[in-house]
């Protein structure tokens, strides 16, 4: 893919606010042929479309679809509408997600937290990608990109986010396996980028504290880094650098030794003050 998405069709989930909206702004600014916004918040979607310049902004057409990604059946229906009304996307950014910070999920969770967390964070990107991947593969001469926003939480364990960490670990395993399958089957025009950021100041992780050497990242910084990695077809992006260090140390150290290191760095206490954001509109932005 060139240095921009000019002329491409871009689809972003969780696009009505937060980082999803920033990705949409970037796509419009670079002259994408069309930008498709998915979110469950109809009012926020309408505001975003208006603030992006309406349905037509220069060369770019902006399309919005109200969809709750927890409803996996709705993904196929909405994807069919997109293929009919806009065309198959060249760039898919699986950005939407949620977090529920339960300290003891077996005491406080009756399925209301576990089920939607896994559906939205892990299954929805799989189902969405399955809908559009055949169209991306159909033209080997047209560059295509899939970006899966996972989390540093999927690379190591952390108290008070067991289900969230599990959902992101599943996303990482699937995303990188998909990358390898495409490479082995000679579909090199489709590149998959797996993104694993630490805490981002979107409000989703309000009250959480970044571990030592791991500052809370700004949405603008992360979006810029993700965008450049996506265009370059980079397989994986870990943010900040200390996430890669933690991943490496956890891989080589005995479990109890790593536990001690994690305690010193404050990894296991990073969610102690977690409050999160209100659950309304929770699907709208990017979730680290």
Give an account of the 3D structure.
InterPro entries: NAD(P)-bd_dom_sf (IPR036291), Sc_DH/Rdtase_CS (IPR020904), SDR_fam (IPR002347). Belongs to the short-chain dehydrogenases/reductases (SDR) family. Pfam families: adh_short. By secondary structure, the chain is an alpha/beta fold. It has a single domain (9-269), classed as Rossmann fold, CATH 3.40.50. It has helices at residues 18-29, 42-51, 72-85, 105-108, 114-138, 162-184, 219-232, 241-252, 255-265, and strands at 9-13, 34-39, 56-57, 60-66, 91-94, 144-149, 190-197, 236-239. Strands 3-4-2-1-5-6-7-8 form an eight-stranded mixed beta sheet, with helices on both faces. Helix 6 links the parallel strand 6 (144-149) and strand 7. The protein is globular and about 55 Å long. Mean pLDDT is 87; it is low at 279-288.
Summarize the structure.
InterPro entries: NAD(P)-bd_dom_sf, Sc_DH/Rdtase_CS, SDR_fam. The protein has one domain: NAD(P)-binding Rossmann-like Domain (Rossmann fold, 3-Layer(aba) Sandwich).
What order do the helices and strands come in, and which of them pair?
Blueprint: E1 9-13, H1 18-29, E2 34-39, H2 42-51, E3 56-57, E4 60-66, H3 72-85, E5 91-94, H4 105-108, H5 114-138, E6 144-149, H6 162-184, E7 190-197, H7 219-232, E8 236-239, H8 241-252, H9 255-265
Parallel strand pairs: 1-2, 1-5, 2-4, 5-6, 6-7, 7-8
Antiparallel strand pairs: 3-4
Helix pairs in contact: 1-7, 3-5, 5-6
Keywords: Oxidoreductase
InterPro entries: NAD(P)-bd_dom_sf, Sc_DH/Rdtase_CS, SDR_fam
Family: Belongs to the short-chain dehydrogenases/reductases (SDR) family.
